[in-house]
Amino acid sequence: MSTSPTISFIGAGNMASAIIGGMLESGFEAGKIWVSAPDDGHLQSIRKQFGVSITTDNRHCAQQADIVILAVKPQVMRDVCVDIAPVVQNTRPLMVSIAAGLEAATLDEWLGGGMPLVRVMPNTPSLVGKGAAGLYANDQVKDKQKASVESVFSSIGSALWVEDESLLHAVTALSGSGPAYFFLMLEALEEAATAKGIPGETARKLAIQTMAGAAEMAGRSEHDPGQLKRNVMSPGGTTEKAIHTFEDGGLRELVKKAYSAAYDRSGEMSKELAAKQ
Ligand SMILES: NC(=O)C1=CN([C@@H]2O[C@H](COP(=O)(O)OP(=O)(O)OC[C@H]3O[C@@H](n4cnc5c(N)ncnc54)[C@H](OP(=O)(O)O)[C@@H]3O)[C@@H](O)[C@H]2O)C=CC1
Ligand SMILES: O=C(O)[C@@H]1CCC=N1
């Protein structure tokens, strides 16, 4: 008999699909996964794609679970939590929120109080087993539950705990939002290369493979990224010209500014959403 936990997702959007897809790819059983959302058409396509159980009833979904993953937008989280609170207060699963900004204490209050709760900040590359997630547990979470949620997120990438919840703002601005920063870089490189005559498809493939190769190399190398960069910059060559153009154009400052904008927004969202109580 299987002893793996039953996991229920409330919300069936981009992030829930990415996590479910990655979990199944790594060997989790579809029969142990439930998903709920309001749109039955959307749920049917999730069922077809993944073979998971579906329902439009969040309470029914939560009732099945050892672990409930709250995967709705922060703005609808309060209504969802208040609705399922009577069920989870009775069954006492481990609650996991992947919402940006929303603090554990706020979520716990909406859930009726005293719940074991883990906040996770995942990212969409979870879909291909290359996710990066920061995790924080409140003081109700037992070691066994920590291990259980860690095994879910480490099955779809890297899962790293933070002791201080406020660090999740910094994680959100780094790895939560981060895939979009690199997609922007891919778009920009593709545009620049096609403008010089490379067919779009070729430019995209070369850019993607270059990004994947650079990431893989940075992950495996004993050198820091600065050294790896210098290794590409032949004196008087092409890369040096490009890197100086980035530096002179203020790329580092711009990255800091963009990172801080995401970081600050995460903090603002916490305050706005806590005020909804
Ligand atoms: N996208 C990302 O890269 C990341 C997102 N996150 C967090 O993940 C969460 C989800 O984001 P994302 O997946 O992008 O959002 P989506 O908009 O793609 O998905 C939201 C899902 O919630 C469902 N939903 C809406 N209202 C309810 C309700 N009352 N009960 C149950 N389900 C409901 C929607 O239903 P329907 O399908 O019927 O429309 C949809 O399936 C957010 O809190 C976000 O902060 C965290 C890290 C990264
Ligand atoms: O943009 C957002 O708010 C969410 C959180 C991190 C990635 N997407």
Task: Describe what you observe in this structure.
With 277 residues, the protein is an alpha/beta fold. The protein has 2 domains: 7-168, Rossmann fold (3-Layer(aba) Sandwich); 178-267, ProC C-terminal domain-like (ProC C-terminal domain-like fold, Orthogonal Bundle). 57% of the residues lie in helices and 13% in strands. It has helices at 14-25, 40-50, 58-63, 74-91, 104-110, 143-154, 167-176, 178-195, 200-220, 225-232, 238-248, 251-274, and strands spanning 7-10, 33-36, 53-55, 67-70, 94-97, 117-121, 131-137, 157-161. It has an 8-stranded mixed sheet with strand order 3-2-1-4-5-6-7-8, sandwiched between helices. Strand 4 (67-70), helix 4 and strand 5 (94-97) form a beta-alpha-beta unit. It is elongated and about 70 Å long. The protein starts with 6 loop residues before the first strand and ends with a helix. It binds NADPH dihydro-nicotinamide-adenine-dinucleotide phosphate and (2S)-3,4-dihydro-2H-pyrrole-2-carboxylic acid. NADPH dihydro-nicotinamide-adenine-dinucleotide phosphate (NDP) binds next to helix 1 and helix 4. It catalyses: L-proline + NADP(+) = (S)-1-pyrroline-5-carboxylate + NADPH + 2 H(+); L-proline + NAD(+) = (S)-1-pyrroline-5-carboxylate + NADH + 2 H(+).
Let me know the largest β-sheet.
8 strands, mixed
What small molecules does the structure contain? NADPH dihydro-nicotinamide-adenine-dinucleotide phosphate, (2S)-3,4-dihydro-2H-pyrrole-2-carboxylic acid
Order of helices and strands: EHEHEHEHEHEEHEHHHHHH
N-C termini distance: 43 Å
Average of per-residue pLDDT values:
95
SS class: alpha/beta
Helix content: 55-70%
Q: Provide the CATH superfamily of the largest domain.
A: NAD(P)-binding Rossmann-like Domain
Protein name: Pyrroline-5-carboxylate reductase
Main location: cytoplasm
InterPro entries: 6-PGluconate_DH-like_C_sf (IPR008927), NAD(P)-bd_dom_sf (IPR036291), P5C_Rdtase_cat_N (IPR028939), P5CR_dimer (IPR029036), Pyrroline-COOH_reductase (IPR000304)
Pathway: Amino-acid biosynthesis; L-proline biosynthesis; L-proline from L-glutamate 5-semialdehyde: step 1/1
